[in-house]
Amino acid sequence: MRRRNLLLGAAAASVIPGSALGEVPAAGRTPWDVLIAGSGLAGLCAAATALESGARRVLVLEKGPVIGGHSAYSSGSLAVVIRKPHAGQKFDDSTETLLEDSKRVGGRVNEAIIRKVGDESESAADWLRSIGVPFSPVVFQAAGGIRPRCISTMGAGAGRAYVTAVNRRAKALGMKLRFGCALTGLVRKNGLWIARVNEKGAEREIEARTVVLATGGFTANEAMRSKYDPRLGPGMHTTANPHGLYFDGATGDGIRIGEALGAATAGMGNFQLLAYSGGRVLEYAGAEVYLDMKGHRFVNEAASTGELTAAILALPERSIWVVTDSRSVKGASLGLKLANGYVRKSETVAEMAHGMGLSPSALRKELDDFNAAARSRHDPRFGRTLFLQTVEQPPFYWGRETLNIHCSLGGLVTDTEARVLDRKGEPIEGLFAAGETTGVFGRDRPGGMALALCLVMGREAGRRAAKAAAKRAA
Ligand SMILES: Cc1cc2nc3c(=O)[nH]c(=O)nc-3n(C[C@H](O)[C@H](O)[C@H](O)COP(=O)(O)OP(=O)(O)OC[C@H]3O[C@@H](n4cnc5c(N)ncnc54)[C@H](O)[C@@H]3O)c2cc1C
Q: Which residue's CA is minimally distant from atom 42 of ligand 1?
């Protein structure tokens, strides 16, 4: 106790002016009811719901300079099992169907949590609507989504819209949030959590009755991800930060802190990778040709994400040329990608070949072979069957594409009350986790399910943490 008081005293005295400490209790002051690490969708949902559930003192620690984590960069496709008519449309969907879809793509999944997400996704989306998220009436099939089950906000920046709305709600209810403040460890003492934090370089401790780990995944932690998948070594970036230009907090801190406390993990070797921040400008399959750096096709371009990922990772440069023509329907990123030079426009195959450093005659032959396969819908080399068009009508749009790491699918094991379980399957008292910090999906997940998980299980973590804190305080 004496050592801890000394530590607290030293940390507080050394760096943070007393006035700035107003929100954080020093030694001997009332502990926080709920301390949440991470201000992504899972963490903010936990904060808002803890406050709605009666917690009074809720503090969110955010390691980075802004709220939102990967959630704010996300496209916002939210998987919802829709039971009520939605904008006049009826859907034949159920929790059991969601579970079947999840098992089909993911194999070994946490069935109880997927059932909970299926049961509660619609009411959780209603909650988002009630706090100011304007959902579009369209229900669509997200990439990898298996069936139409996703909703999203109108306009661009849907992920940011969710984060902003939940943050506004939590702030209105009294949430406190500290930027540049990383949780670095947890110690259990006298029925409380002593959270070790690094706040803008200074080490300090904060007391809390309950803790929610919502620090996201570990796609930005090179050592950690390559420990579980040696193919994901240096030089790769996340889809949230594809050119390595921004702060990226997805370094697996919550998972490592949980593991140090004896928590179990699941699926740590499972990742999703996507090629989309470079030369690709289409958001659908069927109108592109993929070439290796020597200008040869190497894969069925319409294969599943997993097959494409494996084929690209097996190339020596792990980079590909992507070519489409004037007739495909380009995505919203086209203008920016042309301006930044990620995508180029060529009037002739020869001009394109020159830009790629390839022989014009060899590139022409490869494209002729592809177009013959597209016309006959018979691809003897790679067995592709989905051809929406040939690729031969200038101008050509082309660019170099590489893989980015989209999300990690492994993490802490929790139960349906968002309690972190130890390696014997017992809950660790007062410790909760939600979002990409948790391992739920197995080797892959249906599109839109990551945000659904953050929303449903983030809310559950907040609700349960508030209840546990109240019990502890009584
Ligand atoms: C570009 C992109 C598009 C996507 N699109 C979709 C989509 O359309 N639909 C879908 O379902 N999923 C999508 N995903 C995946 C989904 O967005 C993520 O899985 C989800 O948002 C993760 O949310 P989270 O709250 O768990 O973590 P995050 O949103 O990553 O938040 C974690 C936060 O914790 C902070 N943090 C980390 N360590 C600490 C620490 N030690 N102390 C304090 N704070 C810490 C981080 O800085 C970060 O702000 C997308 C992902 C990306 C990158």
A: 182
Q: Whose CA is nearest to atom 27 of ligand 1?
A: 216
Q: Does residue 356 contact residue 279 with C-beta atoms inside 8 Å?
A: no
β-strand partners of 421: 427
Let me know if domain 1-272+409-474 sits in CATH 3.50.50.60: yes
CA of 68 to the centre of ligand 1 (A): 7
274 lines ligand 1 (CB under 6 A): no
Structure tokens at 160: 């940011």
The domain locations on the chain are 1-272+409-474, 276-402
- 84 CB-near residues (< 8 Å, 6+ apart): 122
CA distances from 395 to 310, 344, 346, 350, 352 (A): 30, 10, 5, 12, 10
Segment 340-396, tens digit of pLDDT:
999 999 999 999 999 999 999 999 999 999 999 999 999 999 999 989 999 999 999
Q: Atom 5, ligand 1: which residue's CA is nearest? A: 74
CA 291 – ligand 1 centroid, Å: 32
**Sign of CA pseudo-dihedral 89, 90, 92, 98:** positive
pTM for this predicted structure: 0.88
Q: How far apart are CA 159 and CA 145, in angstroms?
A: 17
Q: Is 41 in the pocket of ligand 1 (CB under 6 A)?
A: yes
